[in-house]
Design brief:
Layout (H helix, E strand, L loop, with lengths): L17 H13 L3 H4 L4 E6 L2 E6 L2 E11 L8 E10 L5 E9 L8 E6 L13 E2 L2 E2 L10
Antiparallel strand pairs: 1-2, 2-3, 3-4, 4-5, 5-6, 7-8
């Protein structure tokens, strides 16, 4: 097992069945690393803002999109996109996660999974958009 597998929380492992999801949930609640959920996990490489993780029949790329204190706790968090794919087959899925590490020696864990929100409906005319008002179209001269 790769040593980095002890740094990441079990919640970052993929679940392809209810049994796997139960293992991930248990590992997350008890603070166990991803290696306890997926013993074959390995870290293939880390380049720039990408971390490549592989385990069994799957592979995952974590892309760090931004680093900041997103939750206001004074600790650096990472906004990441996780791209997961099966090694054989066509199953692919992506998700957005907020990762955090409460202390330098603690596991890197999922603070929350971010759900995409539907695009907002078109703003009504003259409604503020940010700090700019959308002008009302002017009709041409009447005849």
């Amino acid at each position: 097992m790769h040593q980095r597998a002890r740094l990441f929380a079990g919640g970052l492992a993929p679940a392809f069945s209810a049994t796997q999801q139960a293992l991930i949930n248990d590992a997350t609640r008890s603070g166990h690393p991803i290696a306890d959920v997926e013993p074959t996990v390995g870290f293939e490489a880390a380049r720039g803002v990408e971390i490549y993780i592989a385990g069994g029949e799957w592979q995952e790329t974590l892309v760090v999109l931004a680093r900041a204190d997103f939750d206001g706790d004074g600790k650096l968090d990472w906004l990441t996109r996780a791209d997961l794919a099966m090694r054989r087959g066509t199953h692919r899925v992506s998700g957005l996660f907020l990762l955090t590490r409460p202390q330098p020696e603690a596991l890197i864990k999922t603070a929350r999974e971010l759900s995409p929100t539907p695009a907002p409906a078109a703003a009504p005319q003259n409604a503020p958009v940010g700090s700019v008002a959308v002008p009302t179209p002017v009709a041409g001269p009447s005849k």
